[in-house]
């Protein structure tokens, strides 16, 4: 693939992140089905809460398509309580496993077989599965070269002037997928690293001074402390 200036910049950001944080080992799961369950449960919650919910499903021997499909929804909701929004997420898990059983006989392997291009659209027809969840399933469970866009991705790119405030999910995704090689391993690691920098540095109030992506900001960026602020800080004047 001929490299564009944007591609070079995106790769440079990636390298800085990788150098700082190293491999993130995403997605932590024992099976592809578990990845999918995690992708649904992680909506609007921290991963530690998802881990507890998945552990509860495993102990109850329900971490499989038939188990989730047949267990009463109230019991499912109580088992995944730690993940938050448990009634809604129980319903979403039910919707997904119903889809998997009807369409693919309950087999995740069969769902991903053949790399059919229409799978993303199929997943998006399932109630409660939006673009980020569908793409997480395709990338992390299906090893498809598709970029996952989340709130951290949007925030970092916007602060670095790579996108405008109202850029759509699809446009952000195309930015990565047009300018980077179609490599699932790269997309996997890149997304995980953006989450890492978002959690540690690129928070609501950014901590650019010590961030590994500081070098990509122009020196006059309003996100960086002004020189007199730095001097005042070092002199203990606050
Ligand atoms: S904290 Fe600052 S330097 Fe780091 S990613 Fe966010 S905007 Fe960029």
Automatic annotation (TrEMBL):
Key words, A-Z: 4Fe-4S, DNA damage, DNA repair, Endonuclease, Glycosidase, Hydrolase, Iron, Iron-sulfur, Metal-binding, Nuclease
CDD domains from the UniProt entry: ENDO3c
UniProt keyword annotation of Hydrolase present: yes
Source superkingdom: Bacteria
Record-given protein name: Endonuclease
SMART domains: ENDO3c
Entry keyword DNA repair: yes
Gene Ontology MF term list: 4 iron, 4 sulfur cluster binding; DNA binding; DNA N-glycosylase activity; endonuclease activity; metal ion binding
Domain called HhH-GPD: residue spans: 41-200
Family: Belongs to the Nth/MutY family.
GO biological process, one term: base-excision repair
Pfam families referenced in this protein's UniProt entry, alphabetically: HHH (PF00633), HhH-GPD (PF00730)
Source species taxonomy: Bacteria, Candidatus Methylomirabilota, Candidatus Methylomirabilia, Candidatus Methylomirabilales, Candidatus Methylomirabilaceae
